[in-house]
Amino acid sequence: MKEMASLSSIVVLLFFFNIHFIQGYYYDKGTVQTITKCPGYYCGRYQVPGDNETSLWSLCGPCPRGSRVNSTWACTECTSSPTAYDWMYLCFMVVIGLLAQWYSIDTMLPNSQFSWKTFGTHFSALIETCLSACITLLIHEPLGSLQLRSCTVKHLSDWYTILHNPNPNYEEVLHCAQEAVYPLYSIVFVHYGLSVFMLFFIRPWANKALQNRGHVASRPIYAALYLYPILALIHGIMAGLIYYAFPSIIILLSLMSHAFHFASRTDQSWRALLYETVSCIHNLVVVIGHWVLHGFGLVALTLWLQPELLAVILTLVPLPTFLYIVLSRFTDPGKFHTD
Ligand SMILES: *[C@@H]1O[C@H](CO)[C@@H](O)[C@H](O)[C@H]1NC(C)=O
Ligand SMILES: *[C@@H]1O[C@H](CO)[C@@H](O)[C@H](O)[C@H]1NC(C)=O
Q1: Any transmembrane segments, and where (predicted)?
Q2: Atom 3 (ligand 2) nearest CA
Q3: Ligand 1 neighbourhood includes 51 CB (under 6 angstroms)
Q4: Taking Cα atoms as reference points, which of 150, 50, 84 lies closest to residue 92?
Q5: Which end of the chain has fewer CB atoms < 10 Å from its terminal CB, N or C?
Q6: Is a pLDDT exceeding 70 seen at residue 156?
Q7: What atom of ligand 1 comes closest to residue 50's alpha carbon?
């Protein structure tokens, strides 16, 4: 009984002790003379002019555009340049837009055979995309050069800062959402917007020169007007996931589209597959384009390997084509229904 009493008194004591010592998360809410900590991952302070020519540190909040909070809660300007992987990611976003356009042109124009008209439309889309990508780079820091200044991507959450607004002590939410991966997120929107602008600017002239009229001229334009907003929406929501997964995405998509391209041929014997691939320029371009995509995806996926290993891996690029051509006679559905 006595032990019980002492135990409960200890518990009660501990309880009060705790109540007494549980303190809220503390941080300086106003401006400060010397920098102090901020809650959350993305809240920081930047220098603001105080009175008497002193400079103060601002309240905890989002860093100005083009800067990011460092480990001591100061907003520091983004001065690193994008890594090879970052560049490949940007290329991927550009190439996806171009491929979506090319695909829509291919499916919408009546003749699937090679013709100068379809080639001209493809070429026009290529020029528009290249121009828009160059202008996008030129109007970003450093201005007027094809280089970029950026912040390094450290975590997946850098892409989704809006999900990381801290709410210290459940008092008020600090809205510290900002573009922590400046400018890798916004630059894609700029590029897509400019691409639509270029579409209106260049395509009518291309159509005039190629004498495309009616549906042939208008359908690819309408398709692009749907495609770019859809791509922008997907980028807006999934940018972080795409950033980490794009090598696998590009390999998967190009393998699927490669198989689809071969499967849509009427004659599936290996001689016909090989002959049609080599004799028809359209097919040849499609197959080589897929090889380029495979190579791009493989390089992005294995960027951390040594260059010699990379070269070995690149020899795998034409493998899917040869496998399809060699194995197609074993996969003909007719073989399973001979009885
Ligand atoms: C500003 O400086 C003047 C003289 O240098 C001083 O009298 C005044 O108290 C200072 N004000 C603040 C807010 O520090
Ligand atoms: C963070 O930025 C501030 C201001 O630019 C600088 O004084 C400080 O050394 C930086 N901290 C780290 C860990 O780099």
Answers
A1: 87-105, 117-139, 180-201, 221-238, 244-263, 284-303, 309-327
A2: 74
A3: yes
A4: 84
A5: C
A6: yes
A7: 13
